Amino acid sequence: MKKKIFGTILAAALVVSQAVTVFAAGSKVGEASLAGDNAGQYTMTAITSSVEGVEAASMEAILAVNANPSSLQAVADVAPDLADELAGKEAITPFFDLTSAVETEDGYAVTLSVSSLTSAMTDVKLLHYSTARSLWEIVEPTNVDYANKLISAEFEDLSPVAVIANTGAAASDGAEGTSPQTGMASNWMVWLGAAVVLAAAGVVTYRKARQ
Fold first, then answer.
1. CA 140/CA 152 separation, integer angstroms
2. pLDDT at 17 over 80
């Protein structure tokens, strides 16, 4: 009987661990990388400290977003003219320093591979701090390829940039797209199932002890 009870508890523990795994898989933040021929033309560097040409307040905002993708308000505080554009959005990549050794008069056409991009995300844009012009700006992508997780855009100059979007949760509030079914609601169902199994094991143990 003890073996059966132990087996039941072990099964419940497995269910709980699966719930944690599902929750972790629901993260909306992923890495970005250069796609195709861009890998030989540009360089992407992770931002962990100060970047040359970025003033202190903007640098603090960049690091705040990298620490918490939902904190785009930190950028809105230093660039209030972008507050409306940033409202309801989250960073779906960290800020990274995008540079090129090739100067061009026509700007820089870049295609990024973004692992976290899904069709549930809407109004995908790039948030860019221009070190050349000392300003924040929103860059509209020239193409968003959800199937291949690619985002193309043209920049006047290069420096810290992050991809932002209305994520699944925001998209459900009137925007096109649907929220993926791997969020908190589905996790609560799994946790509830684990609780039921554990409760059943407790009842069996109690009855056995009374006999």
1. 9
2. no
